[in-house]
Every structure is written in C-alpha cells, then in structure tokens.
Amino acid sequence: MDKQKKDKRSRKFVFVPFCLMCQAFQARGIVRYDWRASINPIMQELLDNDINIIQMPCPESQFGGYEKGLKREPKGLSGYDVPEFRELCDKLALETVEKIKAIINNDYEVVSILGIEMSPSCAVNYQYTNKGMINRSGIFMEYLRDYLEKEKLRIPVIGINRRYINKSLEQLKQIMRKFS
Ligand code: SF4
Predict the structure, then answer these.
(1) Smallest Cα–Cα separation from 14: which of 109, 154, 116, 143?
(2) For strand 52-55 and strand 12-16, is the pairing parallel, antiparallel, or unpaired?
(3) For every one of its 180 residues, what pLDDT tens digit does the chain have, with 9 covering 90 and above?
(4) Structure pTM?
(5) Any atom of ligand 1 within 6 Å of the Cβ of 121
(6) Which residue puts its alpha carbon closest to atom 5 of ligand 1?
C-alpha cells in the first residue's frame, strides 16, 4: 500500500478570496449576507465536498495598513489602479502562486480558484465603472492569472457573483463533479 492510501487527509484544495470566509473584511456597506460571517452557500459546498480551503490575502484591507483598511469605504477600480496598490497585488499574487505550486508539487490537487465579481481587486470577469459594467479582472486577479499562465498552471478560476449566487454555485458544483 502506498503512503497516500494510508494518509487519510483530503487531497483537494480550493483557494478563496479572504472575504468569502470573512465578510467583515469587505468595504463598508457592501456585505450581502447580512449578519453572516461568510458567503455561506459557497462555503457550505466546499465543506460538503471536504475541500481544504485556503484563504487568499485581502489586498484592499492590507493596503495602507489593516487599521485603516478595515474602515474603508467602497472605491472603484480607478481608485485602486495606482502603482502602490499594483505593487502590493503583484507581491501577494506571487506569494499565492508559490503556495499553489508547493501544494501541487506535494501531490495535492488545486481544484479551483475563486474570485469575487465586481471587486476592483478580486473580480474574475466583471467590474463596475463610471461607464457601467465592463469585462475586466480585478487588479490582484490580473497578476494572479499572469503568474498562473507563466507557470503553466491551468486551474479553473470562478468569479463568485454575489447577486447571482445560484449560478456561481452551479459553476462550482460542475467543477466539484469533475474532481470527485
Ligand atoms: S479585496 Fe478581495 S478579498 Fe478583499 S474584500 Fe475585496 S474581494 Fe474580498
């Protein structure tokens, strides 16, 4: 019997945005699941599938220090698209990809990476701007995808849309089925 069979830990991982597990880190006034700590339908799906959940960093709360970051009001993409914030996102994305590589090199599977649509940092496909909705990743996600591409890591990335949570949940379930 090989070592993996004896070792009874779940071998599947999903990387999630920090606020999926901790809505309190979102900007003020935009929490969607009132009085809940996490975005429960998605979290529940991950728990039900015994997925190891890795919380990615929250660049917006970290920017300028947590003390200030945790009090922040929502700010659009143009408010965050400054060199200092890009530098932070670049660093955090690189660290995240290093972690993903280490996990994969230890014979685990990274099933998916989740983002949060409409976030200037963590959106996968959609952003709100003063011109309406546009197709564009958030800044952190942009760097993350670039590093994944450079490392040739083909991991499905799902944008969780808190307004259409059932649709996002269905996308996640489809991926879970592929890896079950
Ligand atoms: S920056 Fe990302 S992790 Fe932080 S609150 Fe926004 S979407 Fe969530």
Answers:
(1) 109
(2) parallel
(3) 566 668 889 999 999 999 999 999 999 998 888 889 999 999 999 999 999 999 999 999 999 999 999 999 999 999 999 999 999 999 999 999 999 999 999 999 999 999 999 999 999 999 988 888 999 999 999 999 999 999 999 999 999 999 999 999 999 999 999 887
(4) 0.95
(5) yes
(6) 26
Alpha helices of the chain — where are they, by DSSP H?
Answer: 3-6, 18-21, 40-48, 59-62, 66-69, 77-80, 83-105, 139-150, 165-179
Token pair, residue 91, equals: 């660093």
Q: What is the domain partition of the chain in residue ranges?
A: 14-179
Tell whether ligand 1 has an atom less than 6 A from the beta carbon of residue 58: yes
**For ligand 1, is residue 117 a contact (CB within 6 Å)?**
no
Q: Is 90 in the pocket of ligand 1 (CB under 6 A)?
A: no
- Ligand 1 centroid to Cα of residue 32, in Å, is 13
- Residue 24 CA, distance from chain mean position: 15
Burial class (CB in 10 A: 0-12, 13-18, 19+), 119: buried
Say which residues have a Cβ less than 8 Å from residue 152's Cβ, sequence separation at least 6.
none
57 lines ligand 1 (CB under 6 A): no
